[in-house]
């Protein structure tokens, strides 16, 4: 029985090849044709011998609706989607992988409001190279940076898993590191240049931050841990981390002996290459046993490198909830501002943009979409699912709509001293009414209901095809 996987894809004759081709037992034929095949020399082909017609194309509910309605098209209900929106597009008879199109319906059959060219705003971490740790199934890491998402110039991300009691070895970076614990629990430790130490235990939903150049260690507890790292440089590369093992391996033994005032034999067991991620000795549950007494004391309060964000209650609004963490409440994390957003089915993160930073997103659960508007007249819609990174340049307007049947949970990260945005609805509400009417020709019934406070999330009809059936979007 074959172990090879089968994917939904277009099969049959394509590009002048009709598979399966005969199995050859020896070499025959020529790699090149002759001059008789050049245009003007070759006889004309029989143009009735081949066609690009798709017979009995399958369409999903809402696909025949007006293109500018931009309804979300759920292609999972058909075997072979087609890139059609109302009166636009056409069938696809060429090489295809149906699963890609089902995951990215707004790219394959874009809303009629999409226009022009917008840099790619999406990278699935499932397409990133997954680097394993040291032998013994100690863990792994995969990353997103400008190599995979060129527009993401301001931030990069790493998803890392440590097996029970495994370490991310002692290290430091040229970039600052902000982290959200996704699953499990972990102990982190660090020192700073003021001879101060820090140790803390974190679990799912908690955050740590280490400034650039700050040496630190990360060790999972006995049930393992997975965490998301965000760095303040789009060019950050996880493979370019400064490692304690490599520092010792690249330093002459004579220098090590002199620096540590120890016999040279003390260094004979130092690893000759990095450990990266490796299994270690279980840490004591009593954290006080690992709190080193430092000349500068122990870091706490506003100087703490951690924040137990899991214990912060979210701000609840119709359609979902939001909670924010920025230097206002986590002072040490200078420049990092984040919001953890939960959106109920049919609802959306309201139309907005950020004035001080690009936006780096990570989708933790559910599915959604966002249209990115870039000046002066470009717009493109992207679909996101769990494990995807989203990236939206500063000042580009956008929203995030829940397109699934479960809650959508995602993280918004800014490089800003405070989490702020410009709400499109609030902007219109606080602008002279006549000005808005002269520009957009909006009715008074709409303008009367505009909120003067930011709502953050707009509730919506879970039936995303309601407009196609005479219903409402909200």
Automatic annotation (TrEMBL):
SMART domains: Cupin_1 (SM00835). SUPFAM superfamilies: RmlC-like cupins (SSF51182). Residues 125-268, 307-448 form the Cupin type-1 domain. Residues 1-51 are annotated as: Disordered. It comes from the Eukaryota. The keyword Metal-binding applies. Keywords: Metal-binding. Coiled coil: none annotated. PANTHER family: OXALATE-BINDING PROTEIN, SLL1358 PROTEIN. This is Cupin type-1 domain-containing protein. It comes from Epichloe bromicola.
């Amino acid at each position: 029985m074959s172990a090879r996987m089968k994917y939904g894809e277009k099969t049959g004759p394509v590009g002048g090849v009709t598979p399966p081709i005969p199995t050859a037992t020896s070499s025959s034929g020529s790699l090149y044709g002759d001059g008789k095949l050049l245009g003007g020399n070759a006889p004309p082909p029989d143009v009735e011998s081949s066609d690009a017609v798709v017979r009995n194309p399958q369409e999903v509910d809402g696909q025949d609706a007006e293109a500018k309605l931009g309804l979300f098209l759920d292609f999972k209900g058909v075997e072979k989607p087609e890139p059609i929106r109302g009166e636009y597009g056409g069938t696809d008879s060429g090489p295809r992988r149906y699963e890609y199109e089902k995951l990215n319906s707004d790219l394959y059959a874009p809303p009629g409001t999409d226009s022009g060219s917008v840099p790619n705003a999406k990278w699935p971490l499932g397409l990133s190279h997954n680097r394993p740790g040291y032998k013994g199934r100690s863990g792994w890491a995969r990353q997103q940076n400008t190599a995979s998402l060129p527009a993401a110039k301001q931030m990069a991300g790493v998803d890392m898993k440590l097996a029970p009691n495994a370490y991310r070895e002692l290290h430091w970076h040229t970039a600052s590191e902000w982290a959200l614990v996704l699953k499990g629990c972990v102990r982190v430790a660090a020192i700073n240049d003021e001879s101060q130490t820090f140790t803390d235990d974190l679990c799912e939903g908690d955050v740590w931050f280490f400034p650039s150049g700050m040496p630190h260690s990360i060790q999972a507890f006995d049930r393992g841990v997975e965490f998301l790292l965000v760095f303040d440089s789009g060019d950050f590369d996880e493979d370019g981390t400064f490692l304690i093992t490599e520092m010792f391996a690249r330093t002459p033994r004579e220098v090590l002996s002199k620096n540590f005032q120890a016999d040279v034999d003390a260094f004979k067991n130092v690893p000759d290459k990095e450990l990266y991620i490796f299994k270690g000795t279980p840490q004591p549950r009593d954290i006080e046993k690992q709190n080193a007494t430092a000349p500068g004391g122990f870091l706490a309060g506003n100087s703490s490198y951690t924040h137990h964000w899991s214990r912060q209650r979210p701000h609840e609004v119709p359609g979902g909830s939001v909670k924010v963490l920025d230097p206002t409440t986590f002072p040490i994390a200078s420049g990092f501002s984040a919001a953890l957003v939960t959106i109920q089915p049919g609802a959306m993160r309201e139309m907005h943009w950020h004035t001080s930073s690009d936006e780096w997103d990570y989708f933790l659960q559910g599915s959604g979409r966002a249209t990115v508007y870039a000046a002066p007249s470009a717009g493109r819609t992207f679909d996101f699912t769990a494990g995807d990174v989203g990236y939206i340049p500063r000042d580009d307007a956008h929203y995030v709509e829940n397109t699934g049947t479960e809650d959508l949970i995602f993280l918004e990260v800014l490089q800003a001293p405070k989490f702020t945005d410009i709400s499109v609805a609030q902007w219109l509400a606080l602008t002279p009414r006549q000005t808005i009417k002269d520009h957009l020709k909006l009715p008074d019934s709409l303008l009367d209901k505009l909120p003067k406070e930011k709502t953050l999330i707009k509730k919506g009809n879970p039936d995303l095809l309601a407009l196609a059936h005479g219903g409402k979007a909200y």
